[in-house]
Amino acid sequence: MAQRSFWKGYLKLSLVTCRVAMTPATTEREKVRFHTLNRATGNRIESRYVDAVTGKPVKDADEARGYPTGEDKYVILEEDELEAVALESTRTIDIEMFVPRHSIGWIWLDSPHYLLPDDEIAEEAFAVIRDAMDETGTAGIARLVLYRRERAVMLEPRDRGIVVWTLRYGDEVRDPADHFAGIDREKPDAKALALVTRLIDRRTTKWDPAMVQDPVQDKLLDIIEARRKKQKPARPARREEPQDTPGNVVSILDALRKSVEAEKGGKRGRR
User: Fold this and answer.
1) What pLDDT does residue 224 have?
2) What is the CATH number of domain 1-27+62-186?
3) According to the model, what pLDDT value does residue 236 have?
4) Which of 19, 96, 158, 211 could form a disulfide with 118 if both were Cys (CB 3.0 to 4.6 A apart)?
5) DSSP code, position 44
6) What is the DSSP letter of 176?
7) Residues 234-253: pLDDT tens digits?
8) In this structure, are residues 162 and 223 in contact, taking their beta carbons and an 8 Å threshold?
9) Residue ranges per domain, the chain?
10) Is 160's pLDDT higher than 80?
11) How far apart (Å, rounded) are the C-alpha atoms in residues 153 and 166?
12) Residue 235: count of CB within 10 angstroms of its CB
């Protein structure tokens, strides 16, 4: 069942414009969520803002936004000041430029949204923009106000629609060189590399969404259903943690050889 659109507006490229609708591509609606209860009464617990020093509740009219400038020091901003810097919510995705589709690293991608034409008249213009990006291997770059903030977005063709990715801000992405610089640059042992390559080949299969199902979610639902029926839920078996072994080339090669031999007669393999 198609989701209701949470955003409607226009897709624009130069003089070509069409009506479009957008909806988030992901959802957490099916996740198990809990309320905090008073165990003694079974009633829900309310959250309230209290003064951190006096412990007294704070009225809504007395709540303010503060930016920390030091220990117990804040600059308070009023609501009209915050509204003054808020961006006007435009309803047009104006594609400003194009980049090679694979030139934007995965780390810049934030949240995906499905974009589709909003009426039959828009389908032709929408299809022309979508197919042109697909043929040229490019993605469109635009700016859009979403979730009360202006975001740079990337548009890429996907099947009969377009996926709109919000992009992370520049100060949100850390430089990998700062974290990976200390890793040894020497190439691994050639024999070990060959054995791991064989293991990868044996375990390579087609992608299936079932691979990323949430086992905790399923177990929680089983427990909840058992409690509803006043039954004692079965405790899941604990996984055995691997034991630490001396890290040397000989032991690694020996373990890899045994791994490859063990999988020769196994069921793993390409599908």
Assistant:
1) 78
2) 2.40.290.10
3) 61
4) 19
5) B
6) T
7) 666 666 655 655 555 557 77
8) no
9) 1-27+62-186, 187-264
10) yes
11) 4
12) 8
